[in-house]
Write a structure and sequence with these properties.
The complex is a heterodimer of chains A (413) and B (275). Helices cover 46% and strands 17% of the residues of chain A. Chain A has helices spanning 22-36, 39-53, 63-69, 88-101, 115-127, 137-142, 144-152, 167-180, 198-206, 208-221, 236-242, 271-274, 312-319, 330-344, 350-361, 384-394, 396-403, 405-412; strands at 8-9, 12-16, 59-61, 73-78, 106-111, 130-136, 156-160, 185-187, 227-231, 252-258, 276-280, 282-287, 323-328, 371-376. Chain A has a six-stranded mixed β-sheet, with helices on both faces. Chain A has a four-stranded antiparallel β-sheet with strand order 1-2-12-11. A four-stranded parallel β-sheet of chain A has the order 7-6-5-8, sandwiched between helices. In chain A, a hairpin with a 2-residue loop joins strand 1 (8-9) and strand 2 (12-16). Chain A starts with 7 loop residues before the first strand and ends with a helix. By secondary structure, chain B is of the alpha/beta class. Chain B has a single domain, classed as Alpha-Beta Barrel (TIM Barrel), CATH 3.20.20. Chain B is built from twelve helices and nine strands. In chain B, strands 5-4-3-2-1-9-8-7-6 form a nine-stranded parallel β-sheet. In chain B, helix 8 packs across helix 9. Chain B is globular and about 45 Å long. The chains are: A alpha/beta (413), B alpha/beta (275). Chain A binds chain B through residues 1-4, 6, 14-20, 22-23, 162-163, 168-169, 172, 175-176, 179-183, 276-282, 284, 287, 289, 291-295, and chain B through 59-64, 66-67, 70, 74, 77, 82-83, 107-110, 112-114, 134-143, 145, 157-164, 167, 170-171, 174, 182, 185-187. Bound molecules: pyridoxal-5'-phosphate. Residues 86, 88, 112, 115-116, 191, 231-238, 304-305, 349, 351-352, 377-378 of chain A line the site of pyridoxal-5'-phosphate.
């Protein structure tokens, strides 16, 4: 048997799944390839993205942050303004429509903090599909309000009590469900991970982010940006942002991973920076794992980045150096969260705060005439409690209560 | 058949076939609940009639496994079981049971993430006879099959009830030892009743394995002699049990004698339908 190139990004990606799923992946790939070129499908997708999700999202010149950093001109891609509050809905509407057209009756999905679960439940509601969301029992406890949101949206939330009871275990459990109910069910994976065709398909659905940026920035400034920054969990908002620029070699691309409590601690999610090549969840990529190949738990203050693997295309782009990947810690992300809220009146998701933090940390690297685009993948309302607790823990909240949170926040940054 | 493919597994099926017998294949999680008890468990299985032993090397994320094997794997990991522990375990067991084939069943990451050739070579050195890797598809198997052939390890690939005929042909021709048909849409674990689609799939798969002169074993969810007999009637050359054994082990963890007694009588009953 010849080694297959199907769904490969260099040596990464491919298909590594129980045999039962192969016919479902073939069926999905076949239908996706067919519908991708279908005018009616594209028309319906565009309609929903515009009138349900709220596309196109603005590209906003962040005048105050630009002034504050005395660095490059900063533009923010406002995915936080989408319905559901994050970019996840670009993908769930796409896959939801696809599943509906394929005649599937039931949707399953994994979720960490609940963002993808909520976006999936919304897409399912549009198409009237039965929905089960797998969520780690630990995450159910931490994210009660998103569980309630999913319930309101008519999705069942299934707490996962196996393994470490977090995101990676909900992926396992969703895969087990899919193996069992493969004929009626579509597994709506939330990021550019999993077996082929998921990494390619999710990238295509998210690439609308980068395509819009390209058009908007050219209109606004007359040229392409010098640099683009996005955060990396599984990597979907980042690849969606980067992909339309991949062949524009002058545009530098920066992916920012979650450094948690520091990459030298045991508590981080810096898969590309600290992981090793392995095979999990249907794909070959980088994973956090021990010397024997047992997968480790990831840690990040932002639940959306808390995954011990990464999409295979990022593994490829890391190795061929088209994208530079680096790491931002929990504390740096929180400072960026406070800073953007104060300066621009935009509360970014903690995930997106990692991208902002990278820029704040490295603003000296960019010259003043540079144009930098940062993707704000989601809004930060979901993180208010976490940030408040963290500020109280570190004592900076009480103190700043007297003087005003914002001032303290800026002096921290 | 090329000489290298005549490994212990193939030889065993030939021997059984001459006697008109089917193979009873038993899966246990390696070194569970502990190394000494696990040795006694495996000895009991073989002494009571098991023909082939599958040792599961525990993995943190066993996506093809149901709750019983997940639980045992995680406990084994928490107790410090590593691939090397499992290698040594097989080596020890082979001193007494040199004629019984021992297979490793584990996930791709365990085999691939630490230098594939070294891993397979170490397995061979410790007298492992072959591998079953439920998340390894034929498209990704070239290097693995190449090295395993050189070393004389059996490469047992899996098929499913929904596997297309054309693909079954590819699976049968790349497998050595036997083809492992997953009986159901689902993960490992006991089922109360099998549906018609399972038996139809066994017959369909058997036609193809027959043409390729490779035995067919069926597993996932077999929990009693009647299930086993039905699989054999539909064409299986062997039956595989795992979760049912682990259930007995987990339930009687505090009473070893009872555990071994139950395991022994269960295996005798199952082997009964293989004769
Ligand atoms: C707002 C937001 N940003 C980023 C991510 C990370 O995912 P990805 O790397 O796939 O964009 C998530 C995941 O839940 C998210 O909710």
């Amino acid at each position: 048997m010849k080694q297959s190139n199907i769904g490969k990004f260099g040596i990464f990606g491919g298909r590594h799944v129980p045999e039962t799923l192969i016919p479902a992946l073939d069926e999905l790939d076949y239908n996706y390839q067919k519908l991708k070129k279908n005018k009616q499908f594209q028309k319906e997708l565009t309609y929903l993205l515009q009138n349900y999700a709220g596309r196109p999202t603005p590209l906003y010149f962040a005048k105050n942050l630009t002034k504050y950093l005395k660095g490059p001109k900063i533009f923010l891609k406002r995915e936080d303004l989408l319905h559901s509050g994050a970019h996840k809905i670009n993908n769930t509407i796409g896959q939801g429509l696809l599943a509906y057209k394929m005649g599937k009756k039931r949707i399953i999905a994994e979720t960490g903090a609940g963002q993808h679960g909520v976006a999936t439940a919304m897409a399912s509601a549009i198409f009237g599909l039965e929905t089960v969301i797998y969520m780690g029992a630990k995450d159910v406890g931490r994210q009660q309000s998103n569980v309630f949101r999913m319930n309101l949206l008519n999705a069942k939330v299934h707490p996962v009590t196996s393994g470490s009871m977090t995101l990676k275990d909900s992926v396992n459990e969703a895969l087990r469900d899919w193996i069992t109910n493969v004929e009626t069910t579509h597994y709506l994976i939330g990021t550019v991970m999993g077996p082929h065709p998921f990494p390619t398909m999710v990238r295509d659905f998210q690439s609308i982010i980068g395509r819009e940026i390209k058009e908007q920035i050219t209109q606004e400034t007359g040229s392409l940006p010098d640099s683009i920054i996005a955060c990396i969990g599984g990597g979907s908002n980042a690849i969606g942002t980067f992909f339309p620029f991949i062949n524009d070699n002058k545009v530098r691309l920066y992916g920012v991973e979650a450094g948690g409590k520091g990459v030298n601690s045991k508590h981080h999610a810096a898969t590309l920076s600290r992981g090793r090549i392995g095979i999990l969840h249907g794909m070959k990529s980088y994973f956090l794992q021990d010397e024997y190949g047992q997968i480790k738990e990831a840690h990040s203050i932002s639940a959306g980045l808390d995954y011990p693997g990464v999409g295979p295309e990022h593994a490829y782009l890391r190795d061929n150096k088209r994208v530079s990947y680096s790491v931002v810690t929990d504390d740096e992300a929180i400072r960026a969260y406070l800073l953007l809220s104060k300066l621009e009146g935009i509360i970014p998701a903690l995930e997106s705060s990692h991208a902002i933090a990278y820029l704040v940390k490295n603003s000296k690297k960019f010259s003043e005439d540079n144009i930098v685009v940062v993707t704000i993948s989601g809004r930060g309302d979901k993180d208010l409690q976490i940030v408040k607790e963290r500020l109280e823990e570190t004592g900076s909240f009480k103190e700043s209560n007297k003087t005003g949170v914002e001032k303290k926040a800026i002096s921290d940054a | 058949m090329p000489e290298t493919e005549r490994n212990k597994v193939s030889m065993l099926f030939e021997k059984l076939s001459k006697k008109g017998e089917k193979a009873l294949i038993c899966y246990v999680v390696g070194c569970y609940p502990d190394i000494e008890t696990s040795k006694e468990i495996v000895s009991t299985l073989i002494d009571s009639g098991a023909d082939i032993i599958e040792i599961g090397i525990p993995f943190s994320d066993p996506m093809a496994d149901g709750p019983i094997i997940q639980a045992a794997s995680l406990k084994a990991l928490a107790r410090g079981i590593t691939p090397s522990t499992c290698f040594r375990f097989v080596n020890e067991m082979k001193k007494k049971y040199s004629n019984t084939p021992f297979l490793f069943m584990t996930y791709s990451n365990i085999v691939f993430s630490n230098n594939l050739r070294n891993f397979l070579t170490a397995a061979k050195k410790n007298q492992v006879d072959g591998f079953i890797i439920p998340d390894l598809n034929i498209e990704e198997s070239q290097e693995y099959v190449g090295i395993a052939r050189q070393l004389g390890l059996a490469t047992i690939f899996l098929s499913a009830p929904n596997t297309a005929k054309k693909r079954l042909v590819e699976i049968a021709s790349i497998s050595s030892g036997f083809v492992y048909m997953v009986s159901i849409f689902g993960t490992t674990g006991s089922r109360s009743k099998f549906e018609k689609y399972t038996f139809d799939a066994v017959s369909k798969t058997k036609e193809i394995t027959n043409r390729h002169k490779i035995p067919l074993a069926v597993g996932f969810g077999i929990s009693n002699p009647k299930d086993g007999r039905n699989m054999i009637k539909s064409g299986a050359d062997g039956i595989i049990v795992g979760s049912s054994l682990l259930k007995l082990i987990l339930e009687n963890e505090n009473d070893k004698e009872k555990m071994l007694f139950y395991l022994g009588s269960f295996i005798k009953e199952l082997k009964g339908v293989c004769r």
